[in-house]
């Protein structure tokens, strides 16, 4: 196994098509680009610190996956129902192979962010938290985003995700490759040569 394979799994409690983002400011899909620069700071910083150079050198394949969770999974109880981000709890929201990691400053001041929904949100909704060299943006050019039509995955694969807040990281090795085979298979099944983008569950109208 010459090429390192690393998989980050986490549970999302909200999804508006911004983090991750595969949409323009007008909610049109961007089929060649998905970015994640607002949620799961620990994952983004960890990938930057541990894997950015290996991703650029093409000696590591790093994947990011998320399933739909309840708001109460992260201790949020802003409504009585414990709302979830999707009508299909515990289904796969997106999977992405990370192509690069850049600072949020470089993202927002560079060409990648032009006309994108997440860039508009950072500048309009969170102006005090937009430009930030200590935060990083994950860039993916190979991904599937299922949005409001998340994909069902088996109970076996769900065991690789955290039960609540936080994330789980899996580094594939000769010793555990058989154990991780269902997770790796799920990635392969849901990634293809053509990126897949569904409508976001509840896209926000940013004006």
TrEMBL record:
Origin superkingdom: Bacteria
A Pfam family matched in the record: Nmad2
Domain Nucleotide modification associated residue range list: 7-180
Stated name of the protein: Nucleotide modification associated domain-containing protein
Organism: Lactococcus termiticola
């Amino acid at each position: 196994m010459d090429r390192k394979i690393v998989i980050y799994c986490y549970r999302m409690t909200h999804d508006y098509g911004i983090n991750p983002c595969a949409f323009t400011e007008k909610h049109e899909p961007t089929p060649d680009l998905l970015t994640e620069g607002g949620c799961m700071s620990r994952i983004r910083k960890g990938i930057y610190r541990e894997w950015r150079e290996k991703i650029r050198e093409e000696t590591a394949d790093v994947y990011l996956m998320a399933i739909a969770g309840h708001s109460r999974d992260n201790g949020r109880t802003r409504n009585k129902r414990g709302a979830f981000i999707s009508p299909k709890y515990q289904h796969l929201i997106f999977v992405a192979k990370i192509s690069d990691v850049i600072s949020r400053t470089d993202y927002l001041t560079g060409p990648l962010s032009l006309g994108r929904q997440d860039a508009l949100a950072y500048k309009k909704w969170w102006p005090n938290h937009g430009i930030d060299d200590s935060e990083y943006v994950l860039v993916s050019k190979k991904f599937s985003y299922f949005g409001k039509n998340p994909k069902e995955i088996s109970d076996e694969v769900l065991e690789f995700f955290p039960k609540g807040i936080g994330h789980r990281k899996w580094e594939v090795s000769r010793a555990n490759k058989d154990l991780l085979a269902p997770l790796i298979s799920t990635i392969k099944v849901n990634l293809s040569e053509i990126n897949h983008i569904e409508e976001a569950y509840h896209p926000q109208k940013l004006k």
